[in-house]
Amino acid sequence: MAKIIGNSLSNIPWQEKPEGYEMPIWRYKSNPIIKRNAIPSSNSIFNSAVVPFKDGYAGAFRCDSKSVSMDIFAGFSKDGVNWEIEHEPIVFQSDNIEILKKEFRYDPRICFIEDRYYITWCNGYHGPTIGIGYTFDFKEFFQMENAFLPFNRNGVLFPRKINGKYAMLSRPSDNGHTPFGDIYYSQSNDLEYWGHHRHVMATIPGNDSAWQSTKIGPGPIPIETDEGWLLIYHGVITTCNGFVYRMGCALLDINEPWKVKYRSKDYIMTPTTDYECIGDVPNVIFPCAALTDADTGRIVLYYGCADTVTGLAFTTVDTLLDYLKANSL
Fold first, then answer.
1. What span, in angstroms and rounded, lies between the C-alpha atoms of 260 and 203?
2. Residue 174, Cβ density class (10 Å: 0-12 exposed, 13-18 middle, ≥19 buried)
3. On the CB side of 21, how many CA atoms lie within 13 Å of its CA?
4. For 174-216, what is each residue's pLDDT tens digit?
5. pTM (predicted TM-score)
6. Nearest to 319 by CA among 81, 26, 28
7. Stretch (H or E) spanning 264
C-alpha cells in the first residue's frame, strides 16, 4: 500500500465511493459546494485553493465579478464544505508599488512551506505571469516579485524544498487563450530568482491519449508519497465545439521531479454533470487544490466546474496510484 507523506487530517471532508462506481475519483453528492452567486458581487466562483487552517480550513477563491473582472478572495470554513467568502478581494502589501500593478488575478494555489502560506496565481503584468505572495493569518497578505516574465500560467509550488531548493511547476503560454502548453519544473534559492528549468511533460499528439493533446497544466500542490510525487493535472483537447478540460495524474520522481515514472493514458475525471458541462465556459473540470490525510490515504479535490462554480471530489492514494499504474502511457 502507498503512503502519503504528510500530516493527519481527521476532519477531512469525506464520502465513500458509490457501490459499483468504476472511475478512480467520485463526486460529492451535493455538488456544487460553492454557487456562482455566493457573494453579492460574484458572477462565478471557481478554480480555487484550499488548505487546513487552525481548527478548520482557509482558501483563496477566484471570483469573477458581475462586470466579469477577475480577482482573488479569501474564504473560511469549519468543515471544508460550507464556505464563507469575504466580500472584498485580497489586498496585497508590498514595499514596491510596481509589483502591485496588475491587470487581473486568477486561478490561485496555496502551499504551506515552513512557517507561512504561499499563494501563487496567474498575475496580469503586461501579460499573464506567475504572482507569488504569502500570508500567516489570511488577513494580511504580502506580495513578492513575479516568478517569471510573461507569458506563463499555473504556477504550483512543491510543499517542501527539493535538494535544498524551492521548486515550482508551471505552464509557459502566450498572451491569449493558449492553444498549447507543456509542464516545466523550475527551482529557486529564495522564491525570487528562478532557474534550472526542466521539461516535465508534453502534450500527447495523435490519437494515443487525445484528451491531453492540446495542452496540459499542473493542478493542486503535488502530493508527496513514499513512491514519488503524485501530480494531478488538467489536460485539454480541441474539439469542433471548443476546448474540453479533463483531469489526469502522474507520478514524478521524488528527488528529480522532472522525471516522470507513470502518467495516465486515460483521464481520471471528465465533465459529465450539468454543472460541469453548462456554464460560462462549458465542458471544464479544473483541479486547483487537494486535501490529504496521511493516516487513511484519503484525498479530497477542489475543482472548478465550467468556469462557474466549485465542486468537491474524493479518492484515495491507493485508488489513484493503482489506476495510474494500470493505465500508464
1. 13
2. middle
3. 14
4. 998 899 999 999 999 999 999 999 999 999 999 999 999 999 9
5. 0.98
6. 26
7. none
